[in-house]
Protein backbone atom coordinates (compact mmCIF):
# COMPACT_ATOMS: atom_id res chain seq x y z
CA UNK A 1 0.00 0.00 0.00
CA UNK A 2 1.37 3.42 -0.81
CA UNK A 3 2.14 5.65 2.10
CA UNK A 4 -0.22 8.55 1.86
CA UNK A 5 -0.60 11.90 3.44
CA UNK A 6 -3.28 14.34 2.49
CA UNK A 7 -1.88 17.74 2.05
CA UNK A 8 -4.56 20.33 2.45
CA UNK A 9 -2.21 23.25 2.00
CA UNK A 10 -0.55 22.89 -1.34
CA UNK A 11 -3.22 20.70 -2.84
CA UNK A 12 -5.92 23.25 -2.34
CA UNK A 13 -3.66 26.14 -3.13
CA UNK A 14 -2.78 24.38 -6.33
CA UNK A 15 -6.46 24.23 -7.07
CA UNK A 16 -6.65 27.98 -7.23
CA UNK A 17 -4.06 28.15 -9.93
CA UNK A 18 -5.37 25.26 -11.94
CA UNK A 19 -8.80 26.76 -11.88
CA UNK A 20 -10.03 23.68 -10.11
CA UNK A 21 -13.12 24.33 -8.16
CA UNK A 22 -13.73 27.55 -9.99
CA UNK A 23 -17.07 26.69 -11.42
CA UNK A 24 -18.02 30.27 -10.79
CA UNK A 25 -19.71 32.06 -13.61
CA UNK A 26 -18.55 35.44 -12.47
CA UNK A 27 -15.11 36.25 -13.85
CA UNK A 28 -14.35 38.16 -10.67
CA UNK A 29 -14.72 35.03 -8.55
CA UNK A 30 -11.44 33.36 -9.34
CA UNK A 31 -10.76 31.73 -6.03
CA UNK A 32 -12.74 28.73 -4.91
CA UNK A 33 -14.37 28.62 -1.52
CA UNK A 34 -13.63 25.63 0.68
CA UNK A 35 -17.28 24.69 0.54
CA UNK A 36 -17.38 24.79 -3.26
CA UNK A 37 -18.95 21.42 -4.10
CA UNK A 38 -17.07 20.99 -7.37
CA UNK A 39 -13.72 21.27 -5.59
CA UNK A 40 -11.69 18.11 -5.95
CA UNK A 41 -9.09 17.66 -3.26
CA UNK A 42 -5.70 16.45 -4.34
CA UNK A 43 -3.38 13.91 -2.81
CA UNK A 44 0.14 15.06 -1.99
CA UNK A 45 2.26 13.21 -4.56
CA UNK A 46 5.31 13.23 -2.28
CA UNK A 47 3.64 10.55 -0.21
CA UNK A 48 2.97 8.06 -2.96
CA UNK A 49 5.99 5.81 -3.13
CA UNK A 50 7.41 4.96 -6.52
CA UNK A 51 6.03 8.10 -8.13
CA UNK A 52 8.27 10.15 -10.41
CA UNK A 53 7.99 12.83 -13.07
CA UNK A 54 8.30 12.51 -16.80
CA UNK A 55 8.78 15.34 -19.27
CA UNK A 56 8.05 15.45 -22.97
CA UNK A 57 9.85 17.99 -25.07
CA UNK A 58 9.64 18.85 -28.75
CA UNK A 59 10.59 22.50 -28.54
CA UNK A 60 12.20 23.27 -31.85
CA UNK A 61 11.01 26.79 -32.47
CA UNK A 62 11.58 30.14 -30.77
CA UNK A 63 7.92 30.99 -31.11
CA UNK A 64 6.62 27.71 -29.71
CA UNK A 65 6.79 27.25 -25.97
CA UNK A 66 6.11 23.81 -24.62
CA UNK A 67 6.24 22.34 -21.17
CA UNK A 68 4.76 18.91 -20.59
CA UNK A 69 4.96 16.85 -17.42
CA UNK A 70 3.10 13.76 -16.28
CA UNK A 71 3.58 11.27 -13.45
CA UNK A 72 5.14 7.84 -13.75
CA UNK A 73 4.09 5.06 -11.38
CA UNK A 74 6.51 2.23 -10.55
CA UNK A 75 3.70 -0.17 -9.83
CA UNK A 76 1.32 0.91 -12.60
CA UNK A 77 3.15 0.88 -15.96
CA UNK A 78 -0.14 0.73 -17.89
CA UNK A 79 -1.24 3.95 -16.25
CA UNK A 80 2.08 5.65 -17.00
CA UNK A 81 1.81 4.55 -20.62
CA UNK A 82 -1.78 5.76 -20.96
CA UNK A 83 -0.79 9.15 -19.55
CA UNK A 84 2.18 9.32 -21.91
CA UNK A 85 0.03 8.49 -24.93
CA UNK A 86 -2.53 11.10 -23.91
CA UNK A 87 -0.08 13.97 -23.53
CA UNK A 88 1.99 13.02 -26.59
CA UNK A 89 -1.18 12.84 -28.70
CA UNK A 90 -2.21 16.30 -27.55
CA UNK A 91 1.28 17.68 -28.09
CA UNK A 92 1.41 16.27 -31.63
CA UNK A 93 -1.94 17.87 -32.43
CA UNK A 94 -0.82 21.18 -30.95
CA UNK A 95 2.44 21.10 -32.91
CA UNK A 96 0.47 20.63 -36.14
CA UNK A 97 -1.96 23.45 -35.24
CA UNK A 98 0.85 25.77 -34.21
CA UNK A 99 2.85 25.17 -37.37
CA UNK A 100 -0.18 26.27 -39.38
CA UNK A 101 -0.23 29.54 -37.40
CA UNK A 102 3.50 30.06 -37.52
CA UNK A 103 3.28 33.85 -37.37
CA UNK A 104 1.91 33.74 -33.82
CA UNK A 105 3.70 32.85 -30.62
CA UNK A 106 2.13 29.70 -29.20
CA UNK A 107 2.33 27.96 -25.86
CA UNK A 108 1.43 24.46 -24.69
CA UNK A 109 1.49 23.44 -21.05
CA UNK A 110 0.51 20.20 -19.35
CA UNK A 111 0.50 19.74 -15.62
CA UNK A 112 -1.25 17.27 -13.40
CA UNK A 113 -2.63 16.46 -9.98
CA UNK A 114 -3.39 13.24 -8.16
CA UNK A 115 -7.12 13.12 -7.50
CA UNK A 116 -6.94 9.84 -5.61
CA UNK A 117 -4.44 7.27 -4.42
CA UNK A 118 -5.52 4.26 -2.41
CA UNK A 119 -4.95 0.51 -2.26
CA UNK A 120 -7.58 0.23 -4.95
CA UNK A 121 -7.16 3.12 -7.38
CA UNK A 122 -5.05 5.98 -8.66
CA UNK A 123 -6.63 9.01 -10.29
CA UNK A 124 -4.55 11.48 -12.32
CA UNK A 125 -6.01 14.73 -13.60
CA UNK A 126 -4.18 16.26 -16.56
CA UNK A 127 -4.66 19.92 -17.28
CA UNK A 128 -3.81 20.69 -20.87
CA UNK A 129 -3.57 24.41 -21.65
CA UNK A 130 -2.70 26.02 -24.92
CA UNK A 131 -2.62 29.21 -26.85
CA UNK A 132 -2.01 29.57 -30.54
CA UNK A 133 -2.10 33.33 -30.30
CA UNK A 134 -5.80 33.89 -29.80
CA UNK A 135 -6.09 33.40 -26.06
CA UNK A 136 -5.58 30.63 -23.57
CA UNK A 137 -7.84 27.60 -23.39
CA UNK A 138 -7.75 24.55 -21.17
CA UNK A 139 -8.85 20.97 -21.40
CA UNK A 140 -9.07 18.63 -18.44
CA UNK A 141 -8.97 14.89 -18.47
CA UNK A 142 -8.81 12.46 -15.57
CA UNK A 143 -7.31 9.03 -16.10
CA UNK A 144 -8.02 6.30 -13.57
CA UNK A 145 -6.17 3.12 -12.70
CA UNK A 146 -7.87 0.20 -11.02
CA UNK A 147 -5.17 -1.49 -8.97
CA UNK A 148 -7.29 -4.56 -8.28
CA UNK A 149 -7.18 -5.66 -11.94
CA UNK A 150 -4.39 -3.40 -13.23
CA UNK A 151 -6.42 -1.55 -15.82
CA UNK A 152 -5.86 2.05 -16.90
CA UNK A 153 -9.21 3.60 -17.70
CA UNK A 154 -10.91 6.69 -19.05
CA UNK A 155 -13.19 8.53 -16.64
CA UNK A 156 -16.28 7.16 -18.37
CA UNK A 157 -15.32 3.70 -17.03
CA UNK A 158 -16.38 4.93 -13.60
CA UNK A 159 -19.95 4.87 -14.89
CA UNK A 160 -21.76 1.51 -14.89
CA UNK A 161 -23.07 1.38 -18.47
CA UNK A 162 -24.56 3.42 -21.33
CA UNK A 163 -27.90 3.82 -19.58
CA UNK A 164 -26.18 5.17 -16.49
CA UNK A 165 -24.14 7.58 -18.61
CA UNK A 166 -27.34 8.84 -20.22
CA UNK A 167 -28.84 9.35 -16.77
CA UNK A 168 -25.72 11.20 -15.61
CA UNK A 169 -25.84 13.45 -18.69
CA UNK A 170 -29.45 14.27 -17.85
CA UNK A 171 -28.61 15.16 -14.24
CA UNK A 172 -25.65 17.30 -15.29
CA UNK A 173 -27.67 19.05 -18.01
CA UNK A 174 -30.39 19.91 -15.47
CA UNK A 175 -27.83 21.44 -13.13
CA UNK A 176 -26.24 23.48 -15.90
CA UNK A 177 -29.65 24.83 -16.91
CA UNK A 178 -29.53 26.95 -13.74
CA UNK A 179 -26.23 28.55 -14.66
CA UNK A 180 -27.52 31.29 -16.91
CA UNK A 181 -27.44 31.99 -20.62
CA UNK A 182 -23.68 31.63 -21.08
CA UNK A 183 -23.89 27.88 -20.47
CA UNK A 184 -25.54 25.58 -22.98
CA UNK A 185 -27.06 22.58 -21.15
CA UNK A 186 -27.99 21.00 -24.48
CA UNK A 187 -24.29 20.56 -25.23
CA UNK A 188 -24.24 17.83 -22.56
CA UNK A 189 -24.70 14.49 -24.30
CA UNK A 190 -24.04 10.97 -22.99
CA UNK A 191 -20.70 10.93 -24.79
CA UNK A 192 -17.71 9.30 -23.05
CA UNK A 193 -15.42 11.95 -24.62
CA UNK A 194 -17.43 14.72 -22.97
CA UNK A 195 -17.29 12.91 -19.62
CA UNK A 196 -13.53 12.42 -19.71
CA UNK A 197 -12.82 14.19 -16.43
CA UNK A 198 -14.77 12.71 -13.54
CA UNK A 199 -13.77 12.86 -9.91
CA UNK A 200 -15.31 13.09 -6.46
CA UNK A 201 -15.37 15.69 -3.73
CA UNK A 202 -14.62 14.67 -0.13
CA UNK A 203 -18.34 14.14 0.53
CA UNK A 204 -18.46 11.53 -2.21
CA UNK A 205 -20.43 13.67 -4.65
CA UNK A 206 -19.50 13.01 -8.28
CA UNK A 207 -17.80 15.96 -9.97
CA UNK A 208 -17.91 16.16 -13.77
CA UNK A 209 -15.85 18.92 -15.36
CA UNK A 210 -15.70 20.17 -18.91
CA UNK A 211 -13.09 21.67 -21.19
CA UNK A 212 -13.25 25.34 -22.11
CA UNK A 213 -15.82 25.88 -24.88
CA UNK A 214 -17.42 22.46 -24.41
CA UNK A 215 -20.56 23.71 -22.69
CA UNK A 216 -20.13 27.46 -22.86
CA UNK A 217 -17.85 30.35 -23.74
CA UNK A 218 -14.16 30.02 -22.89
CA UNK A 219 -14.25 33.07 -20.63
CA UNK A 220 -16.21 30.98 -18.13
CA UNK A 221 -13.07 29.08 -17.26
CA UNK A 222 -13.68 25.68 -15.73
CA UNK A 223 -17.30 24.62 -15.74
CA UNK A 224 -17.97 21.72 -13.38
CA UNK A 225 -21.01 20.13 -11.83
CA UNK A 226 -21.34 18.21 -8.59
CA UNK A 227 -23.92 15.42 -8.66
CA UNK A 228 -24.96 14.55 -5.10
CA UNK A 229 -23.76 11.20 -3.80
CA UNK A 230 -27.33 9.94 -3.44
CA UNK A 231 -27.96 10.38 -7.17
CA UNK A 232 -24.47 9.42 -8.31
CA UNK A 233 -23.88 6.20 -6.42
CA UNK A 234 -26.33 4.00 -8.36
CA UNK A 235 -24.63 5.08 -11.61
CA UNK A 236 -21.14 3.91 -10.66
CA UNK A 237 -19.26 0.85 -11.88
CA UNK A 238 -17.16 -1.24 -9.48
CA UNK A 239 -14.14 0.94 -10.35
CA UNK A 240 -16.29 4.00 -9.85
CA UNK A 241 -17.13 2.85 -6.31
CA UNK A 242 -13.43 2.30 -5.58
CA UNK A 243 -12.57 5.75 -6.93
CA UNK A 244 -15.27 7.33 -4.80
CA UNK A 245 -14.04 5.57 -1.66
CA UNK A 246 -10.49 6.75 -2.35
CA UNK A 247 -11.55 10.38 -2.72
CA UNK A 248 -13.41 10.24 0.60
CA UNK A 249 -10.62 8.71 2.67
CA UNK A 250 -9.95 11.76 4.80
CA UNK A 251 -11.34 15.19 5.18
CA UNK A 252 -9.12 18.14 4.49
CA UNK A 253 -7.67 20.86 6.57
CA UNK A 254 -8.83 24.32 5.56
CA UNK A 255 -6.98 25.70 2.56
CA UNK A 256 -4.45 28.44 2.79
CA UNK A 257 -5.53 30.03 -0.41
CA UNK A 258 -4.39 33.63 -0.40
CA UNK A 259 -1.17 35.24 -1.60
CA UNK A 260 -0.80 36.71 1.87
CA UNK A 261 -0.99 33.39 3.65
CA UNK A 262 1.50 31.80 1.26
CA UNK A 263 3.87 34.70 1.76
CA UNK A 264 3.40 34.67 5.51
CA UNK A 265 4.18 30.95 5.63
CA UNK A 266 7.29 31.60 3.57
CA UNK A 267 8.45 34.63 5.51
CA UNK A 268 8.75 32.71 8.74
CA UNK A 269 11.71 30.82 7.23
CA UNK A 270 15.26 32.06 6.59
CA UNK A 271 16.33 33.01 3.07
CA UNK A 272 17.84 30.18 1.04
CA UNK A 273 21.61 30.14 0.78
CA UNK A 274 24.22 27.54 0.14
CA UNK A 275 25.58 25.84 3.23
CA UNK A 276 29.02 26.74 1.85
CA UNK A 277 28.25 30.31 0.81
CA UNK A 278 31.14 32.66 1.46
CA UNK A 279 33.78 29.93 1.25
CA UNK A 280 34.98 31.36 -2.09
CA UNK A 281 35.76 35.02 -2.85
CA UNK A 282 34.71 35.48 -6.47
CA UNK A 283 36.45 38.87 -6.58
CA UNK A 284 39.68 36.87 -6.51
CA UNK A 285 38.77 33.39 -7.72
CA UNK A 286 37.66 32.55 -11.25
CA UNK A 287 34.02 31.69 -10.53
CA UNK A 288 31.26 30.31 -12.72
CA UNK A 289 27.67 29.39 -11.84
CA UNK A 290 26.14 26.29 -13.37
CA UNK A 291 22.33 26.42 -13.23
CA UNK A 292 19.98 23.48 -13.78
CA UNK A 293 16.35 24.14 -14.70
CA UNK A 294 12.99 22.39 -14.88
CA UNK A 295 13.61 19.60 -12.36
CA UNK A 296 13.70 17.82 -10.14
CA UNK A 297 13.23 14.75 -12.31
CA UNK A 298 14.44 11.20 -12.80
CA UNK A 299 18.01 12.32 -13.64
CA UNK A 300 18.48 14.75 -10.78
CA UNK A 301 19.79 12.23 -8.25
CA UNK A 302 22.46 11.10 -10.71
CA UNK A 303 23.45 14.74 -11.31
CA UNK A 304 23.80 15.31 -7.57
CA UNK A 305 26.13 12.28 -7.40
CA UNK A 306 28.31 13.80 -10.14
CA UNK A 307 28.44 17.23 -8.50
CA UNK A 308 29.28 15.72 -5.13
CA UNK A 309 32.06 13.64 -6.58
CA UNK A 310 33.67 16.75 -8.13
CA UNK A 311 32.88 18.94 -5.12
CA UNK A 312 31.04 21.41 -7.39
CA UNK A 313 28.10 23.58 -6.35
CA UNK A 314 25.22 24.56 -8.59
CA UNK A 315 21.94 26.44 -8.55
CA UNK A 316 18.74 24.48 -9.21
CA UNK A 317 15.76 26.38 -10.63
CA UNK A 318 13.04 23.94 -9.62
CA UNK A 319 9.51 23.79 -10.96
CA UNK A 320 7.16 23.83 -7.96
CA UNK A 321 4.88 21.04 -9.14
CA UNK A 322 7.93 18.77 -9.56
CA UNK A 323 9.34 19.88 -6.23
CA UNK A 324 6.14 18.75 -4.55
CA UNK A 325 6.67 15.24 -5.97
CA UNK A 326 10.35 14.93 -4.98
CA UNK A 327 11.02 17.14 -1.94
CA UNK A 328 13.68 14.59 -0.93
CA UNK A 329 15.82 15.70 -3.88
CA UNK A 330 15.50 19.38 -2.87
CA UNK A 331 16.59 18.52 0.65
CA UNK A 332 19.58 16.70 -0.77
CA UNK A 333 20.49 19.76 -2.90
CA UNK A 334 20.46 21.93 0.16
CA UNK A 335 22.45 19.47 2.27
CA UNK A 336 25.13 19.16 -0.39
CA UNK A 337 25.76 22.91 -0.65
CA UNK A 338 23.68 23.77 -3.72
CA UNK A 339 21.14 26.57 -3.92
CA UNK A 340 17.47 25.83 -4.56
CA UNK A 341 15.67 28.56 -6.52
CA UNK A 342 12.26 29.16 -8.03
CA UNK A 343 11.26 28.36 -11.62
CA UNK A 344 7.52 28.95 -10.94
CA UNK A 345 4.80 26.42 -10.22
CA UNK A 346 3.99 24.98 -13.65
CA UNK A 347 6.33 26.70 -16.11
CA UNK A 348 3.91 29.04 -17.85
CA UNK A 349 5.21 31.96 -19.91
CA UNK A 350 4.75 34.69 -17.30
CA UNK A 351 4.64 37.47 -19.89
CA UNK A 352 1.39 35.93 -21.20
CA UNK A 353 -0.31 36.11 -17.78
CA UNK A 354 -2.09 38.88 -15.85
CA UNK A 355 -0.35 40.16 -12.70
CA UNK A 356 -2.36 38.08 -10.24
CA UNK A 357 -1.50 34.88 -12.11
CA UNK A 358 2.17 35.83 -12.28
CA UNK A 359 2.10 36.15 -8.49
CA UNK A 360 0.27 32.80 -8.17
CA UNK A 361 2.86 31.06 -10.31
CA UNK A 362 5.78 32.48 -8.35
CA UNK A 363 4.13 32.20 -4.94
CA UNK A 364 3.20 28.55 -5.38
CA UNK A 365 6.75 27.80 -6.48
CA UNK A 366 8.02 29.57 -3.34
CA UNK A 367 5.62 27.60 -1.21
CA UNK A 368 6.47 24.18 -2.66
CA UNK A 369 10.20 24.80 -2.25
CA UNK A 370 9.88 26.30 1.22
CA UNK A 371 7.84 23.28 2.31
CA UNK A 372 10.64 21.00 1.13
CA UNK A 373 13.76 22.76 2.42
CA UNK A 374 12.49 25.14 5.13
CA UNK A 375 14.28 28.04 3.48
CA UNK A 376 12.74 30.69 1.25
CA UNK A 377 14.14 31.01 -2.28
CA UNK A 378 15.62 34.42 -3.14
CA UNK A 379 15.98 33.88 -6.89
CA UNK A 380 13.44 33.29 -9.62
CA UNK A 381 14.10 32.40 -13.22
CA UNK A 382 11.07 33.11 -15.40
CA UNK A 383 10.26 30.18 -17.73
CA UNK A 384 11.74 30.67 -21.21
CA UNK A 385 13.71 33.59 -19.74
CA UNK A 386 10.67 35.68 -20.61
CA UNK A 387 10.35 38.70 -18.36
CA UNK A 388 8.90 42.19 -18.52
CA UNK A 389 8.24 45.10 -16.19
CA UNK A 390 5.24 43.40 -14.65
CA UNK A 391 7.16 40.19 -13.89
CA UNK A 392 10.01 42.24 -12.38
CA UNK A 393 7.58 44.20 -10.29
CA UNK A 394 5.96 41.04 -8.89
CA UNK A 395 9.42 39.60 -8.23
CA UNK A 396 10.44 42.75 -6.38
CA UNK A 397 7.31 42.61 -4.25
CA UNK A 398 8.03 38.98 -3.38
CA UNK A 399 11.68 39.68 -2.58
CA UNK A 400 13.14 37.78 -5.51
CA UNK A 401 15.95 38.63 -7.91
CA UNK A 402 15.31 37.70 -11.54
CA UNK A 403 18.06 35.45 -12.91
CA UNK A 404 18.60 34.63 -16.54
CA UNK A 405 21.90 33.46 -18.07
CA UNK A 406 24.85 34.45 -20.20
CA UNK A 407 25.79 31.02 -21.56
CA UNK A 408 23.13 29.03 -23.35
CA UNK A 409 24.20 25.42 -23.80
CA UNK A 410 21.09 24.70 -25.92
CA UNK A 411 20.92 21.37 -24.12
CA UNK A 412 17.20 21.01 -23.68
CA UNK A 413 16.58 18.79 -26.69
CA UNK A 414 20.13 17.77 -27.46
CA UNK A 415 20.87 14.05 -27.01
CA UNK A 416 24.61 14.60 -27.54
CA UNK A 417 26.53 15.15 -24.26
CA UNK A 418 29.74 16.04 -26.11
CA UNK A 419 28.04 18.89 -28.02
CA UNK A 420 26.46 20.23 -24.81
CA UNK A 421 29.83 20.18 -23.04
CA UNK A 422 31.52 21.91 -26.00
CA UNK A 423 29.00 24.76 -25.99
CA UNK A 424 29.26 25.17 -22.21
CA UNK A 425 33.05 25.25 -22.20
CA UNK A 426 33.63 27.36 -25.32
CA UNK A 427 31.39 30.20 -24.08
CA UNK A 428 32.51 30.14 -20.44
CA UNK A 429 33.85 33.35 -18.89
CA UNK A 430 34.57 34.28 -15.29
CA UNK A 431 31.27 35.37 -13.75
CA UNK A 432 29.13 33.55 -16.31
CA UNK A 433 25.74 32.03 -15.53
CA UNK A 434 25.36 28.80 -17.51
CA UNK A 435 21.93 27.48 -18.50
CA UNK A 436 21.48 23.69 -18.26
CA UNK A 437 18.52 21.35 -17.63
CA UNK A 438 18.60 18.47 -15.17
CA UNK A 439 15.49 16.95 -16.78
CA UNK A 440 17.64 16.14 -19.79
CA UNK A 441 19.62 12.90 -19.33
CA UNK A 442 22.32 13.92 -21.81
CA UNK A 443 22.91 17.14 -19.86
CA UNK A 444 23.64 15.01 -16.81
CA UNK A 445 25.92 12.85 -18.98
CA UNK A 446 27.71 16.03 -20.15
CA UNK A 447 28.26 17.41 -16.68
CA UNK A 448 31.41 15.40 -15.72
CA UNK A 449 33.13 16.65 -18.86
CA UNK A 450 31.98 20.25 -18.30
CA UNK A 451 33.34 20.11 -14.76
CA UNK A 452 36.60 18.50 -15.80
CA UNK A 453 37.36 20.92 -18.67
CA UNK A 454 36.35 24.07 -16.77
CA UNK A 455 38.26 23.00 -13.65
CA UNK A 456 41.33 22.54 -15.85
CA UNK A 457 40.91 26.18 -16.91
CA UNK A 458 40.92 27.19 -13.27
CA UNK A 459 37.21 27.71 -12.65
CA UNK A 460 35.52 27.32 -9.27
CA UNK A 461 31.85 26.26 -9.35
CA UNK A 462 29.65 28.42 -7.13
CA UNK A 463 25.99 29.28 -6.69
CA UNK A 464 24.57 32.38 -8.40
CA UNK A 465 24.55 34.74 -5.35
CA UNK A 466 28.19 33.94 -4.64
CA UNK A 467 29.11 35.46 -8.03
CA UNK A 468 27.88 38.80 -6.75
CA UNK A 469 29.75 38.70 -3.47
CA UNK A 470 28.86 40.63 -0.33
CA UNK A 471 27.20 43.40 -2.39
CA UNK A 472 24.54 40.84 -3.01
CA UNK A 473 21.60 40.80 -5.38
CA UNK A 474 18.56 43.06 -5.20
CA UNK A 475 14.92 41.96 -5.46
CA UNK A 476 13.26 42.78 -8.77
CA UNK A 477 16.54 43.31 -10.53
CA UNK A 478 17.53 41.11 -13.48
CA UNK A 479 20.88 39.31 -13.56
CA UNK A 480 22.38 37.67 -16.63
CA UNK A 481 26.00 37.42 -15.61
CA UNK A 482 28.61 38.84 -13.25
CA UNK A 483 31.26 38.83 -15.97
CA UNK A 484 33.29 42.05 -16.02
CA UNK A 485 31.97 44.37 -18.66
CA UNK A 486 28.73 42.42 -18.95
CA UNK A 487 25.60 44.39 -18.29
CA UNK A 488 23.32 43.51 -15.45
CA UNK A 489 19.84 44.39 -16.58
CA UNK A 490 17.75 46.98 -14.84
CA UNK A 491 14.49 45.64 -13.52
CA UNK A 492 12.23 44.30 -16.16
CA UNK A 493 14.28 45.11 -19.19
CA UNK A 494 13.96 42.14 -21.45
CA UNK A 495 17.14 41.00 -23.11
CA UNK A 496 15.61 40.00 -26.39
CA UNK A 497 18.74 38.35 -27.68
CA UNK A 498 18.86 36.04 -24.69
CA UNK A 499 15.20 35.34 -24.79
CA UNK A 500 15.33 34.29 -28.42
CA UNK A 501 18.22 31.94 -27.95
CA UNK A 502 16.49 29.19 -26.13
CA UNK A 503 13.57 27.73 -24.29
CA UNK A 504 14.72 26.86 -20.80
NI1 LIG B 1 12.51 26.13 -17.84
Features:
single chain; 504 residues; alpha/beta; Heat Shock Protein 90; TIM Barrel; 2 domains; 6-stranded mixed beta sheet; 6-stranded parallel beta sheet; 15 helices; 19% strand; disordered N terminus; disordered C terminus; binds nickel (II) ion
Task: Furnish the topology, listing elements before pairings.
Layout (H helix, E strand, L loop, with lengths): L7 H11 L32 E6 L7 E10 L3 H24 L5 E12 L3 E11 L4 E11 L4 E3 L8 H16 L20 E3 L5 E5 L12 E5 L1 H4 L5 H10 L11 H9 L19 E7 L6 H10 L4 E5 L1 H4 L3 H9 L3 E4 L12 H19 L5 E2 L8 H9 L3 E3 L3 E2 L8 H11 L5 E5 L3 H16 L3 E2 L2 H4 L10 E2 L16 H6 L3
Helix pairs in contact: 1-10, 6-10, 7-13, 9-10, 10-11, 12-13
Bound molecules: nickel (II) ion (NI).
Q: What's the average pLDDT?
A: 86
Alpha carbon gyration radius? 23 Å
User: Please, how many helices?
Assistant: 15
Multimerization state: single chain
What share of residues is helical? 25-40%
- Give the percentage of residues in beta strands: 15-25%
CATH class descriptor of the largest domain: Alpha Beta
How would you characterize this protein structure?
- It is elongated, with a radius of gyration of 23 Å.
- The protein has two domains: 6-252, Fervidobacterium nodosum Rt17-B1 like (Heat Shock Protein 90); 260-502, TIM Barrel (Alpha-Beta Barrel), CATH 3.20.20.370.
- α7 (300-309) packs parallel to α13 (441-456).
- By secondary structure, the protein is of the alpha/beta class.
- β4 (121-131) and β5 form a beta hairpin.
- Strands 1-2-3-4-5-6 form a six-stranded mixed sheet, with helices on both faces. Strands 10, 11, 12, 15, 16 and 17 form a six-stranded parallel sheet that branches. Strands 7-8-9 form a three-stranded antiparallel sheet.
- The chain has 15 helices and 18 strands.
- Mean pLDDT is 86; it is low at 1-34, 251-256 and 485-504.
- It binds nickel (II) ion (NI).
- Nickel (II) ion binds at residues 293-294, 343, 347, 383, 504.
Amino acid sequence: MPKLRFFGGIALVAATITGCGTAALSPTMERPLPSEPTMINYVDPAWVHGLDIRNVSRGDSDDRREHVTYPAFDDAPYLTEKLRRTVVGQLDRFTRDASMNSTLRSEFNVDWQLTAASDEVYGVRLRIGESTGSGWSEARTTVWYDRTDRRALDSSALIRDDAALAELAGLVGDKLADRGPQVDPHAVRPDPKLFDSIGFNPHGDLVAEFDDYQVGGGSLGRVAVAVPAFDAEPLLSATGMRARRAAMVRSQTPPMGSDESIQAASRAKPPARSSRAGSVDCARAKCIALTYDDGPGPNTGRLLDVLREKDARATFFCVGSNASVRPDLLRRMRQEGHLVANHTWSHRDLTALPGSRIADQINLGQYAITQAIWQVPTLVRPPYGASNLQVASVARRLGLSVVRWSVDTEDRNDPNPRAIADRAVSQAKPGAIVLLHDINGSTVDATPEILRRLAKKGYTFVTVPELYGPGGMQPGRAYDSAASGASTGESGIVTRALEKQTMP
